[in-house]
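A student in our group prepared the protein record below, which I am reviewing. Thanks in advance; the entry in question is below.
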Amino acid sequence: MIKSQLLEELIAFRQQRDWEQFHSPKNLAVSISIEAAELLEWFQWKNDEQIAQHLTSNKKEQLEDEIADVAIYLSYLCRDLDIDINQIVATKIKKNAIKYPITKVKGRSDKYDQY
């Protein structure tokens, strides 16, 4: 997801500021949740038309910043825990293909235990 050169830049940025001391797995997970909530806040109380308008305005940059914050903390967490995000996403796709077979779920939003 995050290219290796960009991840190296993120790690260098963190090291230069001596922030590793604050980035325990728990603190990173908490930070991901906080930033994800801020991402949700961007959509809060907006209908589809308002969202579309914001996406073509200068407010889109705020959305991009929140998405970046989530990606940055997730990248730190995966790197620190020696987790290959590309590998685990590929594995999860295979698990979901079994859990949600096309013949049962195509065009439906039911949870796997409701069909």
In short: The first helix runs from residue 4 to 16. The domain at 4-83 is CATH 1.10.287.1080 (Helix Hairpins). The helical segments are 4-16, 25-43, 48-55, 60-80, 85-99, 102-105. The mean pLDDT is 96.
